[in-house]
Amino acid sequence: MSSYPLFQAFPKLQRLPRAGLLQRATPVVPLGDSGDVWVKRDDLTAADYGGNKIRKLDLLLAAARAAGATDLVSFGYSGSNFVAATAWHGRKLGMTTHGFLLPQADASYVADNIATSLHSGAQLQVASSERGVVMAALARSTRLLLRQRRWPIWIPPGGSTALGSLGFVNAAFELKAQIEAGLLPLPERIYVAFSSMGTVAGLAIGLAMAGLRSRIVAVQVVDRTFADPSKLDRLIERTRALLSRYDALAAPSAVVPIEIRTEFFGEHYAVPTTATRRAIERFESDSGARADSAYSGKALAGLYADLESGIATGPALYWHTFNAHGRPPGVAPLAPSKLRAFLSKP
């Protein structure tokens, strides 16, 4: 199967450059003994350091390279998979990542992702507020401009631009090919974490384009300051506009239904609820895959709650967005003393 079935369906989109990070389709597998439930293993997008971020970065880093960029500015919480993945894969393409971070609660994956970023040569800076993060990024970018005569490429949190979202428009066509190959039935409901919104926006468009009438259940895992229905609508429209710019026939007139669920978020980002902990333990036992307290654990809590209540009665798909690898090859563990500056107070 091609890694870009979207481009086969709409050849005019082949003008978009790709970095070659996404090599193959990610597998779909049954979820243990949970009934008619399947898992899309997007934690396996890349052999060395993956997760769903690779689908966005394959397009975003290619565009940055085509623009002659040497420096990237990336944003997230301290344990951001996206910042770490940007640093790791950006280095392969000759680019340095400058990561501007908000502190977060400690979790096992946080130290791994910070270690990956630092090993990749990323320049990390923590600020206590969103405004502080932006001001620090502006100051660093200005210094780079004065020194190198070039403004760095800014990539929003999670890579959720219109271009990044096209990675998940493509993912929907990948899913269609797997359904047609008999690897799973057409899901009635697709469960996915709702954070920077690019995954949900891209899937909503791509499923409609591919003729897959599934409902997306987007489980809120960040504060609504960062993700809400109006912001999602705007990202969908920007992504549709980008598709139309390359192929007037590509963008659908409507997207599939999206149901945003907020009851599994808890009180703070990355702080697990009791349901989150139970969901992680159950999923890791059922699948053998890793899960986390920030994104996948809360999305899984929504899936399992709906299975137990009978809301999810037909075929369901859980889109697993976490990274299967704690640290890439050669990355040493981070000393606890170097972690403190990145963590929020309990």
**Poorly predicted spans:** none
Could you name the CATH class of the largest domain?
Alpha Beta
Report the span from N to C terminus.
47 Å
The radius of gyration computed from the alpha-carbon positions, rounded to a whole number of angstroms, is 19 Å
β-strand number: 10
What is the averaged pLDDT score? Answer: 96
Fraction in helix: 40-55%
Gist?
With 346 residues, this protein is α/β, with parallel strands linked by helices. It has ten helices and ten strands. The chain has helices at 5-9, 53-66, 81-92, 108-119, 130-148, 162-180, 198-210, 229-246, 274-287, 296-309; strands at residues 28-30, 37-41, 71-77, 96-102, 123-126, 153-155, 189-194, 215-220, 258-261, 316-320.
Task: List the topology elements.
Layout: H1 5-9, E1 28-30, E2 37-41, H2 53-66, E3 71-77, H3 81-92, E4 96-102, H4 108-119, E5 123-126, H5 130-148, E6 153-155, H6 162-180, E7 189-194, H7 198-210, E8 215-220, H8 229-246, E9 258-261, H9 274-287, H10 296-309, E10 316-320
Parallel strand pairs: 2-10, 3-4, 3-6, 4-5, 7-8, 7-10, 8-9
Antiparallel strand pairs: 1-2
Helix pairs in contact: 2-3, 2-6, 3-4, 6-7, 6-8, 7-8, 9-10
